[in-house]
């Protein structure tokens, strides 16, 4: 199986990677065997010895692996930035989230807000509602998602607002992304890739990494809610 690269990636790039995998395989003959989960879920797996050739994580998570000697330090490459956004079910009115005050009012008016307690967006949102002084009110009726895509709770009717990285929201059908949380309230998440020290296919992994960092994939990144 010399033509297969084992990839572990954060959910934020799942939509882009699914679209790009076929193009990469057609051009190189190298297949991608990918698994997706939040960075906080992938780090324990990698530290526990799970095999991977290439990993895509938050920059902070990637740096941790490098410091622990698990990642080829010089291979670290920034791929994309992502903002946290808000979505509603398709056809539902788009609430006002243009300003911090408008966002606060929209969240308080929601029947239930779906968000994840893990992952970059979940950690950010928990801090945000604390900063806005509405944590108790939101959490009292929140729909907490253990893992996966929060926007699925819009389709099921469990929530009327979903919070997550825009690139993750866009991977769910039957919803509409209203926009990003006001930029003055957030710092974009940076997602980066690197080759593992114990990679079984380091040459193929490096080739995939170069492809993902190339200008030709930029349009797909943008279409899936990321900034190259």
Helix share bin: 25-40%
Strand content: 15-25%
Radius of gyration from the alpha-carbon trace, in angstroms? 18 Å
Question: Globular, elongated, flat, extended or rod-shaped: what is the shape?
Answer: elongated
Count the DSSP helices: 10
As laid out across the biggest beta sheet, the strand order is: 2-1-3-10-4
Name the CATH architecture of the largest domain. 3-Layer(aba) Sandwich
For the termini, the CA-CA separation is 31 Å
- By CATH, the topology of the largest domain is D-Maltodextrin-Binding Protein, domain 2
The quaternary state of the protein chains shown equals single chain
Instruction: Give the low-pLDDT segments.
Output: none
Molecular structure report:
The structure is a single chain. With 228 residues, the protein is of the alpha/beta class. The chain has two domains: 4-81 and 188-223, Periplasmic binding protein-like II (D-Maltodextrin-Binding Protein, domain 2), CATH 3.40.190; 84-185, Periplasmic binding protein-like II (D-Maltodextrin-Binding Protein, domain 2, 3-Layer(aba) Sandwich). It has ten helices and ten strands. The protein has a five-stranded mixed beta sheet with strand order 2-1-3-10-4. The chain has a five-stranded mixed beta sheet with strand order 7-6-8-5-9. The longest helix has 15 residues, at 14-28. It is elongated. The chain starts with a strand and ends in a 5-residue tail after the last helix. The relative contact order is 0.23.
